[in-house]
Specification:
With 132 residues, the protein is an all-alpha fold. The chain has four helices and no strands. The relative contact order is 0.06.
Length: 132
């Protein structure tokens, strides 16, 4: 089995996996876009392998496979950057929620304490009015 049919088989499996993840709501559409583009690029390179040989000299790369590896590295780097940005956003949201929960908890304690003190005063007034 040569590398091109193998790449086509891998990309077909990847597309099927992406579709399954999207359908089962385990992957959001905004993340799937990059993966679909990568799978389609692998399909194009698998169907037209001479395309890599034609693009490599234009980009200054001597060997077409080095171009493919470089593009793969750039793709993985883009995914890492996207995931880092999403993680940062989620971390900020988590911190904000924790602060809001702490403030609400503090406010609830104050309300409970005020209600308890008001209840104690009512009980004291009822007790003093019953003894008189």
């Amino acid at each position: 089995m040569t590398a091109y049919p193998f790449a086509l088989a891998i990309s077909a499996v990847m597309v099927l996996l992406l579709l399954w993840l999207l359908r089962s709501r385990r992957l959001k559409e905004k993340y799937a876009g990059l993966w679909v583009v990568l799978a389609m690029a692998v399909v194009v390179l698998g169907v037209f392998p001479e395309l890599a040989g034609w693009i490599a000299p234009l980009t200054g790369v001597r060997t077409p496979i080095n171009l493919v590896f470089m593009l793969g590295f750039v793709a993985v780097l883009a995914v890492c950057i996207q995931l880092s940005a999403e993680l940062s956003r989620a971390e900020e949201g988590s911190r904000t929620l924790a602060e809001e929960i702490a403030l609400l908890s503090l406010r609830l304690e104050g309300v409970e304490q005020a209600a308890s003190e008001a209840g104690d005063r009512l009980n004291a007034e009822e007790t003093s009015s019953q003894t008189h």
